[in-house]
Amino acid sequence: MTFKGVLFDFSGTLFRIESAGSWLRAVLDESGVAVPPDEVRRYAMMLAVAGALPGGSAPERIPPELAEVWATRDESADRHRAAYTGLARQVELPAPGLYDALYERHMTPAAWRPYADAAEVLGTLRRAGVGIGVVSNIGWDLRPVFRAYGLDALVDTYVLSYEHGVQKPDARLFRLACEELGQDPHDVLMVGDDRRADGGATELGCSVHFVDHLPVEERPSGLRPVIALAGAGPLT
């Protein structure tokens, strides 16, 4: 089947967040807080277990006081910040200002890397005349990340949960993305790494293709099948 539009998830699909260790070390260096390397590794592991890094490991446990804000974290910028800084505060870090600094760090382009085949796949789809959208559950504006890596010119529309007050798998986000591409959902493919959230697109009639949420080094060509699925070229 040939698709006229392809929607992509952001985190774990087109881009991957840095490791918890890299995230923490960057913030400690910028903040001027001296922590021995062994302690940095220990703090990073505890933050990862807590699920404090957006786009990183899922929390092993949601504290009861954060359950409600966690469930709706992607519906607004304030809720997203509250959920993730709340999880980070489950770990006693050496300086109180680090919690907000960690949250700010994850919103910077430096904290993200595109998958190796992201530019190739987006570029091939664009040259084939396929409309491209990004549909993300997120609490901040990811457009600067795309611009920093030269991918913004390959995206026709962004539909971000916090800008609309709803989060995937709510079909309204996918419907809006299809409308902005000017395409019927049956002519659109959704590509993501979360079977529940991204699978919500099937409610509208979109086809869905899943990729594995892996580190960049472990998934060098996971997006390439999308080219063939969209009818934009042979499977490589």
Automatic annotation (TrEMBL):
Q: What is this protein's name? A: HAD family hydrolase
UniProt xrefs under Pfam families:
Hydrolase
InterPro entries, per the entry:
HAD-like_sf (IPR036412), HAD-SF_hydro_IA (IPR006439), HAD_sf (IPR023214)
Upper classification of the organism: Bacteria, Bacillati, Actinomycetota, Actinomycetes, Kitasatosporales
TM ranges are none
Q: What keywords sit in the KW lines?
A: Hydrolase
Q: Determine the domain of life of the protein's source.
A: Bacteria
Q: Its Gene Ontology molecular function terms?
A: hydrolase activity
